[in-house]
Design brief:
The protein is mainly beta and 134 residues long. The protein is built from one helix and twelve strands. Bound molecules: thymidine-5'-diphosphate (TYD). Thymidine-5'-diphosphate binds next to strand 4 and strand 5.
Length: 134
């Protein structure tokens, strides 16, 4: 599975009167091997997360509960994706500046990542990012 650019994936959904179920399988719904998963929760009203890009790391973001927006910027264009259903998975390629904002109360973001955590993989200075200094 090859994807170019950020993309909202429609993950499989099994609607059920007992409650719905969605699933993500490595390489079937992801273009990368999942090396890591982390989650963001208890975000106070008005707070933002992110504010950086990754040199190598690719991710898929799912709103497990509630909703939030992911703003992506590659230095040329800026796109906003609203994650408000648990069957959406936002694929973020490497090299996109990201902010996560407008978290609803009790929202939970699950992020699956292609790389192990590495602080050296972060680009935290927007002007460096914009100037293509990697
Ligand atoms: P950070 O990546 O800055 O959060 P955000 O998603 O808002 O950009 O990470 C916040 C803190 O968590 C930072 O001290 C590093 C730590 N952290 C890990 O130790 N492992 C991880 O996999 C991640 C994503 C963060």
């Amino acid at each position: 599975m090859e994807i170019q650019g950020p993309k909202m994936l429609n993950l499989p959904k099994f609607p059920d009167v007992r409650g719905n179920l969605s699933v993500i399988e490595e390489f079937r719904q992801t273009p990368f091997k999942i090396e890591r998963a982390y989650w963001i929760y208890d975000v106070p009203g008005g707070e933002k997360r992110g504010g950086h890009a990754y040199r190598k790391n690719e991710e898929i973001v799912v709103a497990m509960s509630g909703s939030f927006d992911v703003v992506l910027d590659n230095g040329k264009e800026r796109v906003t994706f609203s994650l408000n259903r648990s069957y959406y998975g936002l694929y973020i390629p490497k090299g996109w500046w990201r902010e996560m904002e407008n978290f609803s109360t009790n929202s939970v973001a699950l992020i699956m990542a292609s790389e192990k955590y590495d602080p050296e993989d972060y680009i935290r200075d927007y002007s460096q990012f914009k100037n293509g200094i990697l």
